[in-house]
Design brief:
The complex is a heterodimer. Chain A is an alpha/beta fold. Chain A has a domain of 83 residues: Orthogonal Bundle (Cytochrome Bc1 Complex, Chain D, domain 2). Chain A has a 14-stranded mixed β-sheet with strand order 1-2-3-6-9-12-15-18-21-24-27-30-33-35, covered by helices on one side. In chain A, strands 5-8-11-14-17-20-23-26-29-32-34 form an eleven-stranded parallel β-sheet. The longest helix of chain A is centred in the last third of the chain and has 15 residues. Chain B contains 13 helices and four strands. The N terminus of chain B is likely disordered. A two-stranded antiparallel sheet of chain B has the order 1-2. A two-stranded antiparallel ribbon of chain B has the order 3-4. Chain B folds into two domains: 204 residues, Cytochrome Bc1 Complex, Chain D, domain 2, CATH 1.10.760.10; 143 residues, Cytochrome c-like domain (Cytochrome Bc1 Complex, Chain D, domain 2), CATH 1.10.760.10. Chain B is mostly helical. Chain B is 31% helix and 4% strand. In chain B, 58% of the residues are buried. The radius of gyration of chain B is 21 Å and the shape is globular. Classes of the chains: A alpha/beta, B mainly alpha. The interface between A and B is large, with 76 and 69 residues.
Chain lengths: 509, 384
C-alpha cells in the first residue's frame, strides 16, 4: 500500500488522512502538525478495513471567519485536514487534489456556514479521491451543496444543507462512498443524488421538503439505510434515467428507512426528470434491477407507498435503446405500510378507478420486468403484484450485508504495482509516448533532439534528466526551447527519464 | 464549373511528374503510439487512471474510453496520403482534408461544409481530433465505425461525389498507390486495391489524431497553476450544476457520446434538421444530435450541427437564454433535461469560453504531405 500511495500525489507525503473527531473538536488555535489516525468507519470499520489503524501524517490548516477556505485548500497537500471554524463563508470551494479532509468545527451549535447568497453555483466541487466533507452548513447556492466528479472513496457526513439549489449532495462517477447523517431540505431536485456511481452507502440522513429525498440513479451496489424521508414530493427513488453514458442500476438495498408523508407539491424545474414525479410517492423503483425493499416504514404517502415501474413512466425525454427498461428481480420483503394512497393523482388515479377504487395502494407495479418476489404480500393494499412469486427462504433478509462500500479503498490507478520496477516502467512508457513523442523520436530529430542524443548526454543519470524535464534550459542553437513538464509528478518525471535512457526503440519513435 | 474538365485534365497531366520514389511509408508510429509487434498501440497518461464501469467518463483523473488502435505505421501513413489526396473525389477536387483541415482543428471553419458542388451541405464538418475514441460517427450518430462513416462523404453527391467503382478505378489506376497498398498490406502489387484496404488505412490515420496534452490536461495531471484564475473559474462554471456543461461534455474527452436534443436554431431559412430521428425513425429523437467532443473546440467554429453560432460566447448565450427559447412555435422537441434556465452572468459565459481555449492542443498534429501520390493538389479545393 505504501508503495502504491507514492503515486497518488505529485509531491510530498502521501497519506489518506481521516481524523478522530476528538482531534478536530479539541484542536488548538494554530496550524500544527498532527499524527492522524484513520478512524473513518468507511475505511476502518469492521474487521476488513485495510487502513485500520494506519498511522499517517498530515498538516492541519485552520480557517476562521473572514478567511478563505479555498486558500487553505490551495495550500493543502494530500493527507491534510482543513478545519473550518464557525462563521459565514461566501465561496465555491473546489478540491482538485486527493486525500483532503474538510471538517467543520461546530462550537456551541454554531456551524461554519457556506452561504451562496443565491449568486454562487456550488458550495463544494471535488474531483480528487479520498475527500471527506463534514460538519458544514450550506445554504443559498444555485447548483449543488456538494458535487463530486469522479472522486473515489468519498465521505460526506454531518452536513446541514438547505435550499442549496438543484442537488444537495451529488457524487457523480464515484466509487466507494459514504453519505451519512446529513440533513437536507428545500432542494429543487434530489436532496441526495447518487448519480452514476458504485458502492455507496446512504445512511441515517434526514431529507424533507425536497422534490426528491434520496435518488439512486444509474448506480450499482448501493445501500439506502436508516434514513428519514418526509414531506418530499417523492421520498426515495431508485432509477435508470435514459440517455446517460452509464446505463444500469442494480444491486440496491433500501431498508430500515422511514418514508413518511411525502406529499410536497412538485417544484422541480420544468423539463427535469423529477418534475414528472407525482406528489405523494413514497418509494419509486423505475427500471432498476435487483432492488430490495426491506423493513421500511412507509406511511402517509398520498399517491402510493411504493411504485415499481418501467422506464416508460418518464414521458418527457428522448428514448435510449441502450437502456434496459424493465425492473427485474425486485424483492419486496417485510415492511410496514399503512395509510398510503389517500389522494392518488394522474395515471395512478385513472388506474385505480378502473379497479373501482378511489384510493391509491401501498404498492403498485405496472407489470413490466421478471422474477420479482414479495414476502407476505397479502398484508399490503397492492395492485399489480400478480406476477410476483413468494420470496424464497434465502431471499428474505439482507442482514448479512452490512455495507455496499468496498473493504479496501478504490485504487487511484488502474495498473497494479506488482513490482516497483515494472510499474515505474509502465508509467514511464505512458508518459514518454503520451507526451514526449510529440517532439522527440528515437533516432531522428523532430522538434527536439533524438532520444539517442539524450541517452548519450545523461547515460546513467536519470535524476539529472528528470530535473531537466521539470525545468529545461535552452542549450541548443536551432532548436526551440523545451517547455517545462513540471505538471508531471516527480515520480512520473523520474519514471519517464529512466524510460528514455533505457529504451532501444529502433523503429523511429 | 465549366472549367472543371480542363482543370482536371491539367491536374492529371501533373500526375506524370510525380515519381514513385517520392513516396514511401513511415516505419514509425505516430506520436502517442508505441510500436508493438509491428502495430501501433495507443499510449497516454490517462491510461493510468480508472474510469467507472470502463466508460471513460468522469472527472480530472479519469481514464479514456477504448480507442481504435492496432494499425501498422505503414497503414496509418498510407491513410495520411489518402486523406490529403483529392483523387478520392469524383472529379479530383475534394479530399478528406478539404473539409477536415489540419490547421482548422480538422474542421473547415465554415458553418456548413462545402463539397464537390460548391454548395453548402446540410451540416457542419466535425473535428476529427480524437475521433478514434468515438463509438458513433456523424452528427446523427448513424455510423458505428470509421469505415461506415467514410462511406458517407465519399459517395455523397454533395460531398466527394464518388462511387465505389470510381474510387477503386482511380486508385487501382495509380501505380504509386498500387505499390503503397502492397507495402501497407504486405501483399503483391498485382492484387487489386480493395475498399476494405482503403477504409482501413484512412481509419488508421484518423485514429492517430490525438489531442490530450492541453493546458487543461496539465491541470488534470496535477499542475495547479496550469490554468489561470479565470480559466479555473470557467472550469468551475463548466462543471457546476447550474451550467451543467460537463454533464454531457464529460472529461476526459469532453463528450459522453450520447444523443441530446438541445433545440438550437438552424441558419436563416433552413428547415429543421430532424437529426437522429432521421436514421432511427424515433420521433423522440427529432432534432437530437451526438454530443461533440470539445477538445480543440476553440479552433473549430462556427458551432452546432449547422453552424448557427459563430463564437463560443454565442454558444454560451444560447444555453443561458433557457430551455426551448429558440424552438419555433408548433415544433415538438423532447429537449434534454439538462437544458434549463441557468441564467449565467456574462462574466461566467466569458470564463467558460476562456476555459475552453485551454483545451487547445495541436502538439501531435500530423505533417501535411508535400505531395500526394496522384500528383493532384494536396488537400485540394480552395474556394476563397
Amino acid at each position: 500500500m505504501e508503495r502504491h500511495l507514492k503515486w497518488i500525489v505529485p509531491v510530498g507525503t502521501a497519506a489518506i488522512g481521516l481524523v478522530l473527531g476528538a482531534l478536530i473538536f479539541g484542536g488548538g488555535d494554530k496550524p500544527h502538525d498532527e499524527v492522524l489516525v484513520a478512524a473513518n468507519p468507511l475505511f476502518s470499520g469492521g474487521d476488513g478495513g485495510s487502513l485500520q489503524g494506519m498511522q499517517v501524517t498530515g498538516v492541519r490548516h485552520e480557517v476562521h471567519d473572514g478567511e478563505s477556505i479555498q486558500a487553505a485548500v490551495k495550500a493543502a497537500k494530500a493527507g491534510d485536514v482543513i478545519a473550518v471554524y464557525p462563521g459565514t463563508y461566501h465561496e465555491t470551494v473546489y478540491i482538485d487534489k486527493s486525500s483532503i479532509t474538510m471538517t467543520g468545527v461546530v462550537r456551541e451549535g454554531r456551524y461554519p456556514t457556506l452561504d451562496g447568497e443565491k449568486k454562487l453555483n456550488d458550495a463544494f466541487l471535488y474531483s480528487g479521491d479520498n475527500i471527506t466533507i463534514e460538519n458544514f452548513k450550506i445554504i443559498n447556492y444555485k447548483g449543488n451543496g456538494v458535487m463530486g466528479q469522479a472522486g473515489n472513496n468519498f465521505v460526506i457526513r454531518n452536513n446541514l444543507i438547505h435550499d442549496a439549489g438543484v442537488y444537495g449532495i451529488f457524487p457523480e462517477f464515484g466509487k466507494n462512498g459514504l453519505v451519512e447523517h446529513n440533513v437536507l431540505s428545500g432542494i429543487e431536485d434530489a436532496a441526495i443524488y447518487i448519480g452514476m456511481s458504485d458502492n455507496v452507502d446512504v445512511r441515517h440522513n434526514k431529507v424533507y421538503d425536497n422534490v426528491a429525498g434520496i435518488e439512486i440513479e444509474n448506480s450499482r451496489h448501493a445501500l439506502v439505510e436508516g434514513n428519514y424521508a418526509y414531506n418530499n414530493t417523492g421520498g426515495i427513488l431508485v432509477f435508470i434515467t435514459p440517455g446517460l453514458p452509464i446505463k444500469t442500476t442494480y444491486d440496491v438495498i433500501v431498508r430500515d428507512n422511514f418514508v413518511l408523508d411525502n406529499n410536497h407539491e412538485n417544484f422541480g424545474a420544468p423539463g427535469s426528470i423529477v418534475s414528472g414525479i407525482p406528489a405523494g410517492t413514497g418509494i419509486l423503483v423505475m427500471a432498476a434491477d435487483d432492488v430490495v425493499i426491506e423493513n421500511n416504514i412507509i406511511a402517509g404517502n398520498d399517491n402510493a407507498g411504493l411504485i415499481v415501474t418501467d422506464i416508460s413512466s418518464v414521458t418527457n425525454v428522448a428514448s435510449d435503446p441502450e437502456s434496459e427498461p424493465n425492473p427485474d428481480r425486485v424483492r419486496i420483503l417485510e415492511n410496514v405500510m399503512f395509510n398510503n394512497g389517500n389522494n392518488p393523482i394522474g395515471e395512478l388515479k385513472a388506474l385505480m378507478l378502473t379497479q373501482l377504487e378511489t384510493k391509491g395502494p401501498d404498492i403498485v407495479d405496472t407489470g413490466a420486468g421478471s422474477d420479482k418476489c414479495v414476502m407476505n404480500g397479502a398484508r399490503y393494499r397492492a395492485y399489480g403484484l400478480g406476477s410476483y412469486r413468494p420470496c424464497r427462504a434465502d431471499e428474505i433478509s439482507t442482514a448479512t450485508i452490512a455495507s455496499m462500500t468496498l473493504s479496501a479503498p478504490a485504487e487511484p490507478f488502474v495498473i497494479a504495482a506488482d513490482t516497483q520496477d515494472g510499474y515505474e516502467r509502465i508509467v514511464g512508457e505512458r508518459a514518454y509516448y503520451g507526451v514526449c513523442t510529440g517532439c522527440h523520436a528515437y533516432g531522428v530529430r523532430l522538434i527536439g533532439p533524438p532520444v539517442t542524443e539524450i541517452q548519450a548526454i545523461y547515460e546513467d543519470n536519470p535524476e539529472a534528466l528528470a530535473a531537466y524535464i521539470a525545468d529545461p534550459v535552452k542549450v541548443r542553437e536551432n532548436f526551440p526551447e523545451m517547455p517545462p513538464q513540471d505538471y508531471l509528478s516527480e515520480e512520473t518525471r523520474l519514471a519517464v527519464a529512466k524510460y528514455i535512457l533505457s529504451t532501444t526503440n529502433t523503429d523511429g519513435r | 464549373m465549366k472549367l472543371l474538365g480542363a482543370a482536371l485534365a491539367a491536374l492529371l497531366m501533373m500526375q506524370g511528374a510525380v515519381r514513385a520514389e517520392d513516396f514511401s511509408l513511415s516505419q514509425a508510429c505516430p506520436p502517442s503510439f508505441q510500436k508493438v509487434d509491428g502495430l501501433c498501440q495507443f499510449r497516454s497518461l490517462y491510461q493510468l487512471y480508472p474510469s467507472l464501469e470502463g466508460q471513460g467518463v468522469g472527472g480530472l483523473k479519469t481514464g479514456l474510453p477504448p480507442i481504435r488502435d492496432g494499425f501498422s505505421p505503414q497503414q496509418i501513413d498510407l491513410g495520411r496520403y489518402l486523406f490529403f489526396d483529392p483523387l478520392l473525389s469524383a472529379d479530383g477536387t475534394v479530399a478528406c482534408a478539404s473539409c477536415h483541415e489540419p490547421d482548422k482543428g480538422f474542421a473547415d471553419g465554415r458553418g456548413r461544409a462545402i463539397g464537390i458542388t460548391g454548395e453548402p451541405v446540410k451540416r457542419s464538418a466535425p473535428s476529427l481530433w480524437n475521433v478514434g475514441f468515438l463509438k458513433r460517427l456523424f452528427w446523427d450518430a448513424r455510423a458505428d465505425s470509421l469505415e461506415a462513416q467514410m462511406e458517407g462523404p465519399l459517395y455523397d453527391a454533395m460531398e466527394m461525389g464518388n462511387t465505389r467503382e470510381g474510387l477503386l478505378a482511380a486508385l487501382n489506376g495509380n501505380l504509386n498507390y498500387r505499390r503503397l497498398f502492397a507495402t501497407a498490406f504486405e501483399r503483391p502489387a498485382t492484387n487489386e486495391i480493395t475498399l476494405a484496404e482503403i477504409y482501413l488505412a484512412i481509419a488508421g490515420f484518423e485514429s492517430s489524431l490525438i489531442s490530450l496534452n492541453s493546458r487543461y490536461d496539465y491541470y488534470a495531471h496535477g499542475q495547479a497553476d496550469a490554468l489561470s484564475e479565470e480559466e479555473i473559474e470557467g472550469l468551475n462554471v463548466f462543471r457546476s450544476f447550474v451550467a451543467r456543461c460537463a454533464e454531457c461534455h464529460t472529461p476526459p474527452l469532453f463528450t459522453n457520446q450520447q444523443i441530446a436534443v438541445i433545440g438550437t436554431p438552424e441558419p436563416e431559412g433552413m428547415a429543421r434538421d430532424t437529426g437522429v430521428a432521421g436514421p432511427t425513425g424515433d420521433p423522440t429523437l427529432r432534432g437530437g444530435f451526438k454530443v461533440p467532443s470539445l477538445r480543440n473546440v476553440a479552433l473549430t467554429g462556427p458551432y452546432m450541427h449547422s453552424g448557427r453560432f459563430k463564437t463560443l460566447e454565442e454558444v454560451g448565450d444560447f444555453y443561458t437564454k433557457g430551455r426551448g427559447h429558440a424552438v419555433p412555435e408548433g415544433e415538438e422537441l423532447y429537449l434534454h433535461w439538462h437544458i434549463w434556465e441557468p441564467q449565467l452572468r456574462p462574466e461566467e459565459v466569458k470564463s467558460v469560453a476562456a476555459f475552453l481555449q485551454a483545451l487547445t492542443d495541436e502538439s501531435m498534429k500530423p505533417e501535411t504531405p508535400a505531395a500526394v501520390p496522384s500528383g493532384l493538389r494536396v488537400g485540394a479545393r480552395v474556394l476563397d
